[in-house]
Amino acid sequence: MRVCLIASSRFPIREPYQGGLESHTATLARELIRRGHQVSVFAAPGSDRSLNVEELPVRAFASSPAARQDVGAVPEQWMQEHHAYLGLMLHLAGSGTSRFDVIHNNSLHHLPIAMAHLTAVPLVTTLHTPPVAWLESAIRYAPASARFVAVSEHTRAAWSRSVSSTVVLNGVDTDRWHLGPGGGRAVWSGRIVPEKAPHLAVLAARRAGVKIDVAGPVMDERYFREALLPVLNDDAAYVGHLHDEDLIEAVGRAAVVVVTPQWDEPYGLVAAEAMSCGTPVAAFARGALPELVDPVAGDLAAPDDVDALAGAIRTAATLDRSAVRRHAVEHFSVARMVSSYEALYEQQEGAVA
Fold first, then answer.
1. Do the beta carbons of residue 278 and residue 325 sit within 8 Å?
2. What is the CB-side half-sphere exposure of residue 242 using CA atoms within 13 A?
3. Which of 41, 218, 269, 351 would staple 20 via disulfide (CB 3.0–4.6 Å)?
4. Cis preceding linkage at 295, omega within 30
5. Counting Cβ atoms within 10 Å, is residue 82 exposed (0-12), middle (13-18) or buried (19+)?
């Protein structure tokens, strides 16, 4: 099957990934290619060429001095993304049917949905976020044949007032994220932003008497400087933005992975990756995490309760790593995810034909 995979125009699809969306897109593309599909990934410039990337036309845009006087003017980045996806959808309107059997939209932009009626190629859109206004609005213009997928039951329910969706849990390459030996330290990984709250992971690990490493890209310098740096010391270290191989090794050698969302996580890829390594998870019970973290594989704490999270760290660290790994392989494998998407592609192709 010929698959058009639309990715984010904001961050390249390459290691070290900026977040779960980029990692998910790369994993999906690799497995589709491995299975023999013809895949074209439309992604930000600088993305991994091994994924058959066609770069989105993200061109620099600078508004005029007069336009910048309007405090309601749209940000420069918004305009870049708008033109990139507008160009892509116009391209697909002209040549999409001769190149592709299905369009799989993994972007967070409204135009691939709102403009899908311009092409006869069937559309599948994965909802990676809670409901946002620009996507809710775009869905009103989507063709009746468009199919929507939610990355968790929590996300499906959140979107249910706007659109009906099918749940396909995100997948992890459980061969690459392999069973690790464990160790004495905890690990937190993800984007360094307030809504991910790594400072709470540090505080909880300290109360549990466990040393912790924090890994990930600093996306909010002020938060990093004012909230995270002050709680770091000899027992809690920031180890930088790690490439996958280094992160896999760190997670595999951890006693527990700590997940501390202060928002409702649509999925929780960090937790699935940790469990694939046999590393149990201690997390706040928010968003989709209760769907992922079974008692055999981790322990959940009340949201924002650092003392409860410290207890969850101690409990999770005692769990059997082989059982944790089995849970991940059974529920979160990339093979399971891609097989579900293949079935949806075939349904869409048949429905539109």
1. yes
2. 17
3. 269
4. no
5. middle
Instruction: Read off the pLDDT of residues 153-177 as tens digits, 9 standing for 90 and up.
Output: 999 999 999 999 999 999 999 999 9
Question: SS3 of 298, please?
Answer: strand
Q: What is the mean pLDDT of residues 8-25?
A: 90
What would the pLDDT profile of 35-71 be if each residue is shown by its tens digit?
999 999 999 999 999 999 999 877 544 545 544 444 4
Torsions phi, psi for 62 (to 5 deg): -125, 120
Q: Is 249 exposed, middle or buried (0-12, 13-18, 19+ CB in 10 A)?
A: middle
| CA pair distance 46, 64, nearest whole angstrom | 28
Q: 22 with 13: CB under 8 angstroms? A: yes
CB 270 within 8 A of CB 190: yes
DSSP classification of residue 193:
S
- Closest to 275 in 3D by CA, of 237, 331, 318, 313: 331
- Amino acid in the structure at residue 353: A
Residue with tokens 């997390």: 283
Give the predicted TM-score (pTM) of the model. 0.90
**What CA–CA distance (Å, rounded) separates 38 from 28?**
13
Percent of the chain with pLDDT over 90: 88
Which of 8, 223, 245 shows the shortest CA–CA distance to 111? 8
Question: Which is more confidently placed, 68 or 124?
Answer: 124
Q: Which residue intervals of the chain are DSSP H helices?
A: 20-34, 65-68, 76-99, 111-114, 133-139, 153-159, 198-208, 221-223, 244-252, 269-276, 289-292, 306-316, 321-332, 334-352
Coil, strand, or helix at residue 143?
coil
The pair of structure tokens assigned to 195 is: 């809504």
